[in-house]
Amino acid sequence: MPGFRELLREHGLNEVYKVTESLAGRYLVFMRVTGDKWVLCVSNGCDVWKTELNKEELEAERDVADFKSLEEYLTRFSQSFQRGEMTVSCMGKKATLEVGLGISSLSLDLYEASAAERKEEIQTLLFFLASTAHSLEIELKKSKDMVEGLQHQIGKASNSNTAFVDLDKKRGSQTKAKPKQPGMSVINPSSKKRKAAQGVVFD
């Protein structure tokens, strides 16, 4: 049985983010695992709303949502999050994040972060995005080098095949039998055949 941290990571709910459009504007939803808590944040670029849930608190959310197990709850949450099925509504110092569609959506309340918390979360997100972009650049370069290497190999193979075809054509033209001219000897092509002796004709 995986621990709480491992369970969240297995469901892709650690160090992930996604932008969602709501009536009040665009929001960035991001989450991470720190210690024994699952940290969820919502930001409009200026303000940050945040909640931290340990396993017992998340089990309480699962019970309210009427799921039999935490695994089922996290699976539903993860699938809806990855599809971008989210809405954010803000009222005062509270923001409500709904993940999923219709009556089956999962709802979590987040609260306005303090100035120190806001600075910490935005800083954490900034460095995470920079690290992700750097990793993508490295992967892109590896893929580009691999494609260029394959193209080079294909080019060499194509040139080699062309050379073989040209060589075969050359050999074929050299070994092709020359047409025999009428009256020429097959054994000695440079001399004409002698006519067979017909004897002396007497009148």
TrEMBL record:
It comes from the Eukaryota. GO terms for cellular component: nonhomologous end joining complex; nucleus; site of double-strand break. Residues 170-203 are annotated as: Disordered. GO terms for molecular function: molecular adaptor activity. One of its GO terms (biological process) is double-strand break repair via nonhomologous end joining. Pfam families: PAXX. This is Uncharacterized protein LOC106171910.
